[in-house]
Amino acid sequence: MADDVSLSWVPPEVDTAKSSPARVYDYGLGGSHNFEVDRAVLDKIKEIVPSTPQPAQDNRAFLRRAVRFCQEQGIRQFLDLGSGVPTVGNVHEIAQQTDPGARVVYVDIDPIAVAHSQRILAGNGNAVVLHADMRRPDEVLDAPETRRLLDFDEPIAVLMVAMAHYLADEDDPVGILNRYRAVQRPGSYLVFSHMTDEDHPEDMRRAVEIFNADTTEPMILRSRAEIEHLLEDYDLVEPGLVYPSQWRSDGPLPAEHDPSRSAFFAAVGSPHPPA
Predict the structure, then answer these.
(1) 86-96 burial string, b = 16+ CB within 10 Å, else e?
(2) Which of 96, 135, 171, 275 could form a disulfide with 167 if both were Cys (CB 3.0 to 4.6 A apart)?
(3) 58: alpha, beta or left, given left = phi > 0 and alpha = psi -120 to 50?
């Protein structure tokens, strides 16, 4: 866990009195770049949803399998939107393990996630992090770092893992997805997961009330039908839209593992060509 006494690694503009999704997620993954306010949020949620931090863990395992799937399809470059605080098993670690030439652009709005990523990626010429908002696709796509590292004439994987539930309806999530889809050539993929209240509505609504009470980025739960609507312009690979742990699992799940307790749906899809 983070040392809240010695905070020399914290950028000066960070409000350490407010939780952030990136740091709460980091705590759920057992990371060390989080504050007491972040830990308190997840600990309160665990009182309502005892399976916590299963959502973060299932999503991280899904990310690993999805990146490997994309590589098996020939993908060598990745745009990770809302990449969060780097912990073990980040995209560049997965991809560059088998392909040292794989290129990764991380994007996050959280200054701590960006600052820590910059330290980790120092000396890695094939990975970079942008301090940017995924809600502004043109700023992300036109950034010099993005243009330097990614070749949009070649297939690319766009990753939006555990991020689209921070897009409010007024943000126009379909429009945002369409803008990223517009730069994806044939052979590209979207790696996607989204939090849901489909199966445990009362627990999840109470959990989100706690999460949203004092966070920098409020969360919006959506039903399976609403998430399917977001993905209408993608052909989903098998097994389609499922719980993260059910997406091409590496093996049988433990008997005590309830996939629905991730409170997420996940999918990988190939984009339809822009109209």
Answers:
(1) bbeebbbbbbb
(2) 171
(3) alpha
Q: What is the DSSP string of 21-81?
A: HHHHHHHHTT-S---HHHHHHHHHHHHH-TTTTHHHHHHHHHHHHHHHHHHHTT--EEEEE
Distance between CA atoms of residues 83 and 91, nearest Å: 9
pLDDT of residue 10: 65
Cα–Cα dist 167/180, whole Å: 14
Helix or strand run (H / E) with residue 146 = helix 144-149
For residue 153, how far is the Cα from the chain centroid?
Answer: 24
d(CA 142, CA 92): 21
From 233, 241, 191, 183, select the one nearest 70 (Cα to Cα): 191
Task: Enter the DSSP assignment of 245.
Answer: G
Question: Residue 176: helix, strand or coil by DSSP?
Answer: helix
199 Cβ contact partners less than 8 Å away, ≥ 6 residues apart: 260, 263
For residues 70 and 121, give the distance between their C-alpha atoms in angstroms, rounded to a whole number.
22
- Comparing C-alpha atoms, which of 198, 167, 188, 183 is closest to residue 235? 188
Indicate the pLDDT class of residue 7, thresholds 50, 70 and 90: low
User: What SS3 state is found at 240?
Assistant: coil
Q: What is the pTM of this model?
A: 0.89
Model confidence at 255: pLDDT above 80: yes
Nearest to 91 by CA among 177, 161, 166, 7: 161
What is the rounded distance in angstroms from the CA atom of residue 41 to the CA atom of residue 34? 11
Q: Is 166 helix (H, G, I), strand (E, B) or coil?
A: helix
Task: State phi, psi for 104 to the nearest 5 degrees.
Answer: -135, 130
